[in-house]
Automatic annotation (TrEMBL):
Source organism per UniProt: Streptococcus parauberis NCFD 2020
Record-annotated ABC transporter domain positions: 3-220
Source species taxonomy: Bacteria, Bacillati, Bacillota, Bacilli, Lactobacillales
Family: Belongs to the ABC transporter superfamily.
Official protein name in the record: ABC transporter, ATP-binding protein
Keyword Nucleotide-binding: yes
C-alpha cells in the first residue's frame, strides 16, 4: 500500500471530526472520498498528506513518497502569467525536469494560455494549471479536494480525461473528493464518510449493488403471465419491482418475452447508494 491509515482521530476543540478512520490507498489506484460538507473530507486529506497532525492513530506512508496537492483555493500568483508561475514552481525543486513540465503542458492543453495572467483565466483553465503545478515534482500520489466543483461540463470532462490519462500512462495514484457522484463511478475504490465515520468502502459497482436498488417496470399482456417475483401492480397490466440485478432482469425478459408488451429498467446509481448510506444528498 502507498498509504495506510489506522484508527485516525482528530478533533477541533471539543468537536471530534474524525472518529477512528481506517483507510488504504493502493499504488496506481484512483480513490474517491465521498461525503457531505463538514463530513471530514478536507481534514482527512490534510492528515494523509502530512499537512495536519492527528490526535491519535497512525498513518504509514511508502518510503520516499512524493505527494502533490490541488487545493480548493489556488496557491498561484494571480498577477503573474501562467508560464511565470510554473517556472517559479519548477525552480523550487532540485531535480527539476523541464521536459516533464513540457509534457504536462501538452497533455493538459494549456499552451494557448501560457502568456495570460493567472487571474484572467476561467475556472477550468485555472484548475488545469493548478494540476500542472501540483505535478511538477513528479509525485507518486496526487491529492485533489473538489477538483471539478463549479466547472462547466466540458471542463469537468477534460479534467477527468486528464486524471485517467495520468493514472493509466504515468501510473499516478489519485485521491480525490468530489460532489459529483457520477464522476466517482470511474474510481477504483470509493469511501463514504459521514460525520467523521467511514460508512462503507469498496468498488463503485459493489457499493451500487449493495446499497442502490434497480427499478423495473413491465407492461404485460395478461395478469396470468406474471413472473413469480413480487411485483407491485401500478395499474392493470403494469407492474413494478426494485432490487433486481441486471442479469436477473435479462433472464426474466427472455423468459417472458412473449407476454411482455414493453418494459423500462433503471440500474442503481452511486448517488442512490450514498443516499441509502447517509440519508443525505450531496450539495455542490
Amino acid at each position: 500500500m502507498l498509504i495506510t491509515a489506522r484508527n485516525i482521530i482528530k478533533s477541533y476543540g471539543k468537536k471530534q471530526v474524525l472518529k477512528g478512520l481506517d483507510l488504504e490507498i493502493e499504488k496506481g489506484s484512483m480513490v474517491a472520498y465521498l461525503g457531505t460538507n463538514g463530513a471530514g473530507k478536507s481534514t482527512t486529506i490534510n492528515i494523509l498528506s502530512g499537512l495536519l497532525a492527528l490526535d491519535s492513530g497512525q498513518v504509514i506512508r511508502d518510503k520516499h513518497l512524493k505527494m502533490g496537492m490541488v487545493f480548493q483555493d489556488s496557491v498561484l500568483d494571480g498577477e503573474l502569467s501562467v508560464a511565470a508561475n510554473l517556472k517559479n514552481r519548477l525552480h523550487m525543486y532540485k531535480a527539476a525536469d523541464k521536459d516533464w513540465l513540457k509534457h504536462l503542458i501538452e497533455i493538459t492543453k494549456i499552451q494557448p494560455i501560457l502568456k495570460q495572467k493567472y487571474q484572467s483565466l476561467s475556472g477550468g483553465q485555472k484548475r488545469r494549471v493548478d494540476i500542472v503545478r501540483a505535478l511538477i515534482n513528479k509525485p507518486d500520489i496526487l491529492f485533489l479536494d473538489e477538483p471539478t466543483t463549479g466547472l462547466d461540463i466540458q471542463s469537468r470532462e477534460l479534467i477527468w480525461y486528464l486524471f485517467n490519462t495520468l493514472q493509466k500512462e504515468e501510473g499516478l495514484t489519485i485521491f480525490l473528493t468530489t460532489h459529483y457522484l457520477e464522476e466517482a463511478e470511474t474510481a477504483d475504490k470509493v469511501y463514504v464518510i459521514d460525520n467523521g465515520n467511514i460508512l462503507a468502502s469498496g468498488k463503485p459497482s459493489q457499493l451500487i449493488a449493495d446499497y442502490a436498488k434497480s427499478q423495473l417496470i413491465l407492461e404485460m399482456t395478461s395478469a396470468e403471465a406474471m413472473p413469480e417475483q413480487e411485483f407491485i401492480e401500478l395499474e392493470p397490466g403494469r407492474y413494478f419491482i426494485e432490487g433486481l440485478k441486471t442479469q436477473e432482469v435479462i433472464t426474466l425478459l427472455n423468459q417472458y418475452q412473449k407476454e411482455i408488451s414493453s418494459f423500462s429498467f433503471q440500474e442503481g446509481t452511486l448517488n442512490e447508494a450514498f443516499l441509502t448510506l447517509t440519508g443525505k444528498e450531496i450539495q455542490a
